[in-house]
């Protein structure tokens, strides 16, 4: 793995979870503790994190990792989750999709179906559907929610977006949180993104959370869907042995392991 790629992945993990142990970085990236030590020293010098005993913490001046960096992290796990999630859907369903790297991965799998109505705040999802329509014909009706453009990600948020969500009813809300645990449910780092996801969850008959293993048992700043309101959690095989996954399952949601 190239040095810059390691830097991006460490920062993406840290901006999601705010603190990381040296052991976790080593395990996530598959690199030695010595390589972790050199990388975090370099990143601290860049002002991108702060070292503490046993690991690193997020510099409080920084917010969530850039969207482009998040797209590169755990791509195989997100693809597996997308393939499992699409099996829960049928033609004729209306879906809410929020903006995220996992829901973007889901978009590719949705192209194997037809006859869906997709309501989304994600420009990336809308553009991908439009591009597919040129080559494959229009497979789905896509409704793009208006609102204020969110900083750092091609998506809308704010009062206008939430108001538009209230005009729709969906069979499923497929949401990609920053983290999920049995105590706080699905959580996000950004208040605007959480507001959109919360509104989608409230206006859907069923709520499906898409979260890879690194998000299981973790919590971020803003809760938007309590664990008791989640119908299904779709995760990847690396989450299977996590005690936190068993705790989530005991709390009520059906768990689908891709």
UniProtKB/TrEMBL annotation:
Record keyword Repressor present: yes
Entry keywords, A to Z: DNA-binding, Repressor, Transcription, Transcription regulation
SUPFAM superfamilies: NagB/RpiA/CoA transferase-like, Winged helix' DNA-binding domain
Domain HTH deoR-type positions: 3-58
Signal sequence range: none
GO MF annotations, alphabetized: DNA binding; DNA-binding transcription factor activity
Gene3D superfamilies with a match to the protein in the record: 3.40.50.1360, Winged helix-like DNA-binding domain superfamily/Winged helix DNA-binding domain
Superkingdom assignment: Bacteria
Keyword NADP found: no
Family annotation (Pfam families): DeoRC, HTH_DeoR
The protein's name: DeoR family transcriptional regulator
Source organism per UniProt: Azoarcus indigens
Phylogenetic placement of the source organism: Bacteria, Pseudomonadati, Pseudomonadota, Betaproteobacteria, Rhodocyclales
